[in-house]
Amino acid sequence: MAVAAVAIGAGCARHVYRAACLPKELLAPAAVNMEAIHLGGLSNPSDAPQRIQCGDVLDVTMVTDFTRLTTNTTPIRVADDRAAAIPLIGKVAVAGMTMEEAERAIALEGVARGVFRTPCVTVTMKEQRKNRITVVGAVKKPGLYELPRGSSSLLAALVAADGLSKEAGPEVEIRRTGIAADTIKVNLAPAEEGSQGNCLLEDGDVVCVAKRAVKPLYVLGLVRKPGEFEFPGNQELRVLDALALAGGCSNQAADNVLVIRQLPGQPEPARIALGIQDAKSGQDNLQLAPGDTVIVEQTASTVVVDVLQNFFRFGFTSAIPML
Asked: What is the pLDDT of residues 114-132, one digit of tens each?
């Protein structure tokens, strides 16, 4: 077959590409097996030490009398002004600090305000403030979930929703409400491979997992069962696979195949030519994309085979004497 062919339509020439030398922009996108995506592949957003935030409840323990080693533990909520009201000492700004930094700050304030001489302070997290996260779309259990603010990650939200459903695609949108309203897009496939890290969520965020919208495949022409076929969303499909779905070729001389591929944003579809025999040798077994139309074309050779088949079939039948 010729390296390129020209078809006349609507008064203009349309180029036909060869499958063996297809430009990158015409290649089918790589198939994403959602069933194989491991959510644990999402990396932690940060390995930094835990920091205190407004709304957290802390357990503050102080040893003020080393002769008796008496201790006093008090649960204290960090207010919106970033301060914790420490008994006898007063307000101490601790939001944004690590536990160790808060311990030093409280001890220094106790000494500076003349309350204690050498207090020993221990600060631990009793309860983190919760973020209310809404998870919708292609997850098993959509709903509203409360997650600890310090660990409100995309992974935690998806796990809370019992993971992805069978209809899930790789695209996830995080719709941020509040003053800085924004939309963050995450692709789970590269995130699994470590090229895109996990994302920390904020109070009021909406996580939307998009469903896969896979267009069907059309196989037409000289095949036994022409028609529309479901395109597998989790694996790649090639020309020989498409012909098998359509029951194989209906003409033994058929070899010319034309794949019509509509590209996003392009007014005219791309036309890709290949040979069945070349596909069987591995050279032209083109990977298909959702929405492709595969046509096994009529040629002079297939016409001759059809004529001979009809001649022998009808000729042999007419030669049988009527009883």
From this structure: 998 888 999 999 999 999 9
Give the DSSP per-residue string, 147-207: EEGGG-BHHHHHHHTTSB-TTEEEEEEEEE-STT-EEEEEEHHHHHTTSS---B--TT-EE
Name the residue type at position 7.
A
pLDDT digits (tens, 9 = 90+) for 243-300: 999 999 999 999 999 999 998 888 899 999 999 999 999 888 999 999 999 999 999 9
Cα dihedral value 3, 288, 282, 36, nearest 10: 150
Q: CATH number of the domain at 129-211, out of 3.10.20.30, 3.10.560.10, 3.20.20.120, 3.90.180.10? A: 3.10.560.10
- Domain 57-127 has what CATH class? alpha beta
pTM: 0.59
Token pair recorded at residue 233: 């969303």
pLDDT at 315: 57
Least confident among 27-31, 98-102, 311-315: 311-315
- Rounded mean pLDDT of the chain? 84
Please say whether the beta carbons of 260 and 26 come within 8 A.
Answer: no
DSSP state of 310: H
Sequence ranges of the chain with CATH classification 3.10.560.10:
5-30+214-309, 129-211
CB < 8 Å & 24+ apart, contacts of 82-91: 82/54, 84/58, 84/60, 86/60, 86/110, 88/115, 88/116, 89/113, 89/115, 89/116
Q: How many angstroms separate the first and last alpha carbons of the chain? A: 50
Determine the residue type at 197.
Answer: G
CA distances from 301 to 1, 78, 252 (A): 13, 84, 10
CATH among 1.10.1650.10, 2.30.40.10, 3.10.560.10, 3.40.190.10 for 5-30+214-309? 3.10.560.10
